[in-house]
Every structure is written in structure tokens, then in C-alpha cells.
Write a structure and sequence with these properties.
399 residues, 1 helix, 4-stranded antiparallel beta sheet, Immunoglobulin-like, 26 strands, single chain, elongated, 37% strand, mainly beta
Length: 399
């Protein structure tokens, strides 16, 4: 049963009485409506199992069933103590992309005894990519939740329901430590040993990761554009930190290929970024970062380490290193060069040139072509000795 506070003639000035809450309680979902139970191919109901509230009844001994609560834009409190039927979903079978539908509550204050019941409906999202649709009548609608319907699905069997965010007083967005968080701004944490799990949505610009010493970051970047529109990823300069970065591209089929935007502090290595892959980076000193792992679609990528062999870089600019891999399976490459004195230096990093590229490579079928920069730090006698092996090439690839 639905209960509303306050209805017309309850009291006579109910419209004005409701208005006193406007601005204190922002319109939206506060309790319940947290579980969707499918009842048909494109229908179901919302229950109040997780965050529903109970009230003590007039007998002072028993309590009501769990209730959901939404607040309208006119300050009306709408309680539901039973499952709320939701219909109006349509098939997504003809859409090659995931679709997001918005489940809303709509209510109009009515100057009639008993008022008017709130109703629930679905606003269908657009084809071509998972974008949350806008309200169709904003003054009287509030969001209850979202339904993500997978691409080409004709029903809700594999759909994912997400309840609307529970709002804080005054419209603040509260973070609850026992619940998954969705950040729409980069977050900074100043304490150690924190697990920072977030989903950060951006079509372009800079992703700025901040935090204190020893943080573990798990960041899912959702982008509708090619990754080359992301100008840079700024890593936190904090000791002992780990960043796990997952990039998911929507709206475009195939892999994202990245040509230098993900630049690790301490090197200029270029990584080939694949949509859906997870890249794990680690820093021991808070200054220099390194790629320590790659996984894709929950399966770990395999690494292959090749030795360059003898290479007098002072007199020879080009070196060819054979590889046995299918070029389409290669996902990332790191190259370390050893000086005659035994120091390891990233192939792309040039101290003398202030961090500019000191070398480049080309991946070809069955071979890598390494080219050191003329006039760069490798074009030097300190890399000319007859050492047995000049460096190492690490290739991450799919089996």
C-alpha cells in the first residue's frame, strides 16, 4: 500500500507544509526499491529488502513491513510497503549496444481529499550506447533506479538493476564505506593502506589519481571515445602504491589503441591499451612507476622476455630482435637497456634530454626493430662495450 505525507486536507495547508522540506530533503530515493524481481520477459517488481525501513504501528507492539521511501520535488514523502510493479520495458534485441532505462516515480499534488497516488514508469534510453535518459517531465518526476539491458537482449534475463543513489541532507552525496561507490570527480585520500575502488567516467581530458602513501587504487575508466582523447593519466607520487586501471570503451567496436597518452612517471613507455584489459602499475619510491601485470577478460596475459644480444649502440643505430608471436596478440611491450657499467635504463627515457624519447621500436611480423635516437643518451661510448646482452624486451601477449 502507498502512503503519502501530506495529502490535501491533511492538514488543510498540506502544500505549504510539504514545501518546508524542499531543499532539506532533495527529491529522490531514500529507502528501499533496492531489489528488482523479474516476473516476466520485460516486467518485474521492486522490493525493499536491503535498505527498507519499518515503522512501529499504532498498537506499539508490531512493526510494518519494510517500506521504500521517495521524496517528490514538492516535498511529499511517498512510502511503499509492498512490491512495486514495474512494466514498460522494451526489447533491446535490435540494438548492438547496451541500453540504460530509467525507472521513475511521478507524482502531482492534487487539491482533492486523499490526494493523488504516485505512479511508476520507465523512460527508455537511446540506442547506440549506454546513456542515462533525461526526465520527460522533470518537475514531477524522480529517479528510482536504472536498468542496464545488454546489447541484443530481447528480455530482462541478463539485465542489471541499480537503485538510485541515496541522497544526504541538503543534497549532499554521501559515501558509505560498506557499499560500492561511483565517483563523478577524482577523489583524494590522505591516509595509508586504503583500497580506493571507483568508477570514473570521462570522454576526454585528464584522469588525475591522487592519494597518500601505500594506497591501492582500482579505477575503472569508462569512455565513449578513442583513448587518444584522454590527454593524460596522472599517477600519485606516493610510495608503495599500486594502481589497477581498467579501461572500457563503449559505443565503438574493437580495441582501443593508445599511442603515448599513458605515460608512467620515470619513463616514456608506450603501451597498447585494449578495451576491457586491466593494467597494474606499482611504485616503490613514489617517483618511478612500472607495469607489473596485465590481464584481459579475467585471464592473465602471458609475458615473454627476449634478450637483445650484443649491441654497440654508439656505432649501430638499428637492432632487429626476432619474436615468435602473432602480431595481433601483442598487447604491451617494455624495453630495458643495460649500460656497460651495469645500470638498467628504460629504452624510451633520456635523462640528458629531460625525459624525451631516446629510442623507438616498431613491431613487425616475427621481429621488433629497435632504433636508438642519434644524439640521445644511448648514442654514447657507455653503451658500446662488448657485453653479451645489451638489454631485455618484455612482451605481454594473449595466448
Amino acid at each position: 500500500m502507498q502512503t503519502r505525507f501530506l495529502n490535501h486536507l491533511d492538514p488543510l495547508t498540506s502544500f505549504e507544509a510539504n514545501a518546508e522540506f524542499v531543499g532539506l530533503f532533495e527529491p529522490g530515493r531514500y529507502r528501499g526499491f533496492d531489489v528488482f524481481v523479474q516476473s516476466g520477459p520485460l516486467a518485474g517488481g521492486l522490493r525493499h529488502i536491503g535498505t527498507g525501513t519499518r515503522k512501529t504501528l499504532i498498537d506499539n507492539a508490531t512493526q510494518s513491513a519494510q517500506q521504500g521511501l521517495n521524496v517528490t520535488r514538492q516535498g511529499v514523502f511517498v512510502f511503499e510497503d509492498a512490491e512495486v510493479p514495474i512494466a514498460g520495458f522494451n526489447s533491446n534485441a535490435a540494438n548492438a549496444f547496451d541500453r540504460i532505462d530509467l525507472i521513475i516515480m511521478e507524482h502531482e499534488w492534487l487539491a482533492s481529499l486523499g490526494g493523488q497516488a504516485a505512479i511508476y514508469s520507465v523512460i527508455q534510453g537511446a540506442d547506440g550506447g549506454p546513456v542515462v535518459p533525461d526526465f520527460t517531465a522533470t518537475p514531477k518526476q524522480t529517479a528510482v533506479g536504472q536498468m542496464l539491458i545488454p546489447a541484443s537482449d530481447a528480455n530482462l534475463n541478463n539485465a542489471i538493476y541499480t537503485p538510485a543513489t541515496i541522497l544526504g541532507l541538503g543534497g549532499t552525496n554521501s559515501a558509505y564505506l560498506d557499499q560500492p561507490q561511483e565517483f563523478i570527480r577524482p577523489q583524494g585520500f590522505g591516509f595509508s593502506a586504503l583500497d580506493y575502488a571507483s568508477r570514473y567516467t570521462a570522454a576526454s581530458g585528464t584522469l588525475d589519481v591522487q592519494g597518500g602513501t601505500g594506497n591501492n587504487y582500482s579505477i575503472s575508466l569508462l569512455t565513449t571515445d578513442d583513448l587518444d582523447t584522454l590527454t593524460s593519466v596522472l599517477f600519485p607520487f606516493t610510495k608503495g602504491s599500486t594502481v589497477r586501471l581498467k579501461i572500457t570503451q563503449t559505443g565503438t567496436a574493437g580495441f582501443i589503441t593508445e599511442t603515448g597518452n599513458i605515460t608512467l612517471p620515470g619513463e616514456n613507455t608506450t603501451h597498447l591499451i585494449s578495451s576491457g584489459a586491466i593494467y597494474e602499475f606499482f611504485t616503490e619510491d613514489g617517483t618511478n612507476w612500472e607495469l607489473v601485470g596485465v590481464s584481459k577478460n579475467a585471464s592473465t596475459l602471458t609475458s615473454l622476455v627476449l634478450e637483445t644480444g650484443v649491441w654497440n649502440m654508439d656505432t649501430t643505430a638499428i637492432l632487429v630482435v626476432a619474436h615468435p608471436l602473432t602480431i595481433g596478440k601483442i598487447r604491451s611491450i617494455d624495453i630495458m637497456i643495460e649500460s656497460d657499467a651495469g645500470s638498467l635504463v628504460p629504452f624510451h627515457f633520456d635523462v640528458d634530454l629531460g625525459g624525451a624519447a631516446a629510442g623507438s621500436y616498431t613491431v613487425e611480423p616475427a621481429q621488433l626493430v629497435l632504433a636508438r635516437l642519434t644524439g640521445g643518451s644511448f648514442d654514447d661510448a657507455s653503451f658500446s662495450g662488448a657485453v653479451n646482452n645489451r638489454g631485455y624486451v618484455t612482451i605481454w601477449y594473449e595466448d
